[in-house]
Structures are given as structure tokens and as C-alpha cells.
Amino acid sequence: MHLGHLLKEQGDAAGAKAAYQQAIDSEDETWAPNAWKYMGNLLGEQGDTTGAKAAYHQAIDSGEEYWAPSAAIDLGDLLRQQGDTAGAEAAYQQAIDSGHETWAAVAFTRLRET
Predict the structure, then answer these.
(1) What is the pLDDT of residues 86-111, one digit of tens each?
(2) Which end of the chain is less congested by CB atoms within 10 angstroms, N or C?
(3) Model pTM greater than 0.90?
(4) Domains annotated on the chain, with CATH
(5) Distance between CA atoms of 65 and 44, rounded to whole angstroms?
């Protein structure tokens, strides 16, 4: 994961994707959802919104207590940028419903902004 972040910061998107994919392939209960979330961020920044959405959904569907609601917020942000207010609200609500101490509060704030 950290290698992916480092490579992304250095402008090596292909290397970052490969590092994230390696974490995803590990199927680790914590690191794979984390990698899906950051893969979504990278794909979104590259303009691949379809890929970003799919990656966020993988993280969300994992149900991992920290990364799933964080990915739901990122998905909501992406959908809001695309003008999909209803989709953004649903994604934020999913993060709120997770009950995560940090991400539920962030999602509530974002929901109020839509």
C-alpha cells in the first residue's frame, strides 16, 4: 500500500496501480479494501470514473469497518462531482449507516452540503 502511495506521489501511476493490485490480490481483510479505495482515487484522478466507481464498490462491499465507509464517502464525492446528487446522497448515507466514529461524521457533513 505504502509503495503505491509513494509511486503515485512520484508520478508513476502504472507503478501505483501495480502496487495497489498486489495488495488487492493478497485478499487481506484490511489491506485489500484499502487498496480498492486508493485504486478508486487513482482511477478517478485519471478520468476513469467507471473504473473508480467499480473500485469504490469493491471496497464498500468488503464491509471492512474503516475502509468501506471511507470508500463510500469517496464514491459520494465522485458522484456529486458528476452531478448525481441522489447517488452521492445514497453513498454518504451508507457511510453514515456504518456508524464509524470518524467517517459517519464526515459523511453527515458532506450529505448536508449536497
Answers:
(1) 999 999 999 999 999 999 999 999 99
(2) C
(3) yes
(4) 2-113 (1.25.40.10)
(5) 23
